[in-house]
Design brief:
It contains six helices and ten strands; from the N terminus they run H-H-H-E-E-E-E-E-E-E-H-H-E-H-E-E. With 198 residues, the protein is an alpha/beta fold. The strands form two sheets. A six-stranded mixed sheet has the order 1-5-6-7-8-9. A four-stranded mixed sheet has the order 3-2-4-10, with no helix packed on it.
């Protein structure tokens, strides 16, 4: 397992005041509670209410493809799943997780329980997803910067908001939110549930 992608970001130093990061003394310690790693060609990330955070699952049986974020890992790289929401931060304060490889970092927020009750509720859910993703991108950028790492120079970064497909899609609203997100963070925001890794 190659921990270079995590070590390059200097996360231990950047998040040093958090107890889980203080416990990192060797590379394998990242996999205690903070990260999972997998190399399969098709990976699925699921926001598991029972676990209290996101996890890798082997397949979508019983969950449905609309409840997971799929990763196509053709080159069978080490793909690290960083547990953020409910692990290092209080639940719902930041985005759910990030996926890190040697070539990219993807922040992911799940809104798969969002309902399609009203236009106002849909609007609020899209904005809440964007805000949670903005908070974590800014936080990680600032923390990394304090330890001498310019995040987007070290690794390409993207953000993804995953919605239940029963929520009506408003393309104009999503484009507007994505444009504002890019201006505020310098990071592209997509409303999707699959990513082909480099």
């Amino acid at each position: 397992m190659d921990f270079e992608a995590i070590n390059r970001l200097r996360l231990k130093e950047a998040f040093g005041e958090f107890e889980l990061f203080q416990r990192i003394s060797k590379d394998g310690d990242w996999l205690d509670k903070l990260f999972e790693c997998d190399t399969r060609g098709q990976l699925f990330v699921y926001d598991d209410a029972e676990a209290g955070h996101v996890v890798y699952v082997n397949d979508t049986k019983g969950l449905g493809r609309d409840k997971v974020f799929g990763l196509v890992n053709k080159n069978h790289k080490d793909v690290f799943l960083w547990h953020i929401d409910g692990v290092i931060y209080e639940k719902t304060s930041k985005c759910d997780c990030a996926v890190i490889t040697t070539d990219e970092m993807e922040f992911i927020e799940f809104k798969t329980n969002a309902s399609n009750s009203s236009q106002e509720a849909i609007f609020d859910n899209y904005h809440k997803a964007s805000e949670q993703l903005q908070k974590i991108v800014k936080d990680v950028k600032e923390r990394c910067s304090k330890v001498g790492v310019t995040l987007t120079s070290v690794i390409p970064v993207e953000a993804h908001a995953v919605f239940n497909p029963t929520v009506p899609s408003d393309s104009a609203m999503k484009k507007n939110i994505s444009a504002k997100f890019l201006v505020r963070t310098g990071v592209k925001l997509s409303f999707d549930n699959i990513k082909e890794l480099k």
